Amino acid sequence: MKKTYLIVFGTLAVLTLLTVGVSYLHLNRAGAITVALLVAGIKVSLIAAFFMHLKFEKKVIHGIFYTALFFVLILLFLILPDIGF
What we know:
Number of helices: 3
Helix content: over 70%
Number of strands: 0
Number of domains: 1
Structural class: mainly alpha
């Protein structure tokens, strides 16, 4: 189990470095936001699965988590047009 946590930690560190590296590419705003959201989504899923132990929980907890995630995504996509203006 300790090895798994270290692998996840290393992956999170690499993804953080990737995020910082992408910031130096000077992408356009939409590209930078897309890459940042993609990397952040991967990092959140790793943290939730391993450090919050959702990978080992029962289906009820998964349902609650994915329902909350669904509503967060709806709210995110509702405010994205406001960010562009």
